[in-house]
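FIELD: query
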Amino acid sequence: MKTKTKEQHMSAEELAGVGCRMSTDESDTFEEYAEVELMGHTVLIARVTKAPIGDLIRCDVLNSECRIEQTKLISPKAVYAISLLTKETALLLAKQFGPPPVARLSHN
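FIELD: result
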């Protein structure tokens, strides 16, 4: 019977903190491309970093032209899973799927 490692038992909050602790040493920052699955069945293809506000996760969501479409600051409690990707894979997925639709308000 396989035993799970400690990393497989970490919560989203703990996982979000891995490599994200605030430090004056710039080599201790976290910046990765990832598929971010949120509660509510939303999937983002984004560049993920530690937000400068509290314990939030910053997701720079990529569009189908591989540009940042929107930036979301997300609570680690709202994260179901984060799958790290290479930049090339993230850009390929962004081209195929783009960001989730956003309704724009019209004041006509």
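FIELD: remark
The radius of gyration is 15 Å.
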